[in-house]
From TrEMBL:
Highest taxon, organism lineage: Eukaryota
Lineage of producing organism: Eukaryota, Metazoa, Ecdysozoa, Arthropoda, Chelicerata
Protein name (Swiss-Prot/TrEMBL): Uncharacterized protein
Amino acid sequence: MRKDFITPKLVAALVRCQLSMGDSVFVLEATIDALGCNIDKFPIRKSSIQRIRTEKRKERAENIKIDFQNEVPDVVTLHWVGKLLPALSARKSKEERLPIVISYGLKKRTHCCAKTG
């Protein structure tokens, strides 16, 4: 039986460290091996990591949406600015994208990032 061990926190850590799919696989395999576990029991392939990352991002987006719907604020502030951010494709190193931040009360929600141009 294969074990689903990739949590939202682990996905966030891999994204925050800007690890590629290949680097993510390498780090996860090394970690599992260092813990003395059988690698065959864990879904560690680039396609598995990508699929799980996508699922976890969708789950997080749904949770943010539900939280926002349950707690509709009277006033919100919308912030946006065009920025050069790391490209989503490997062909370009930087591209202009539009990060959007909605803040209300003590909370901030970031929606990133529509490609401009």
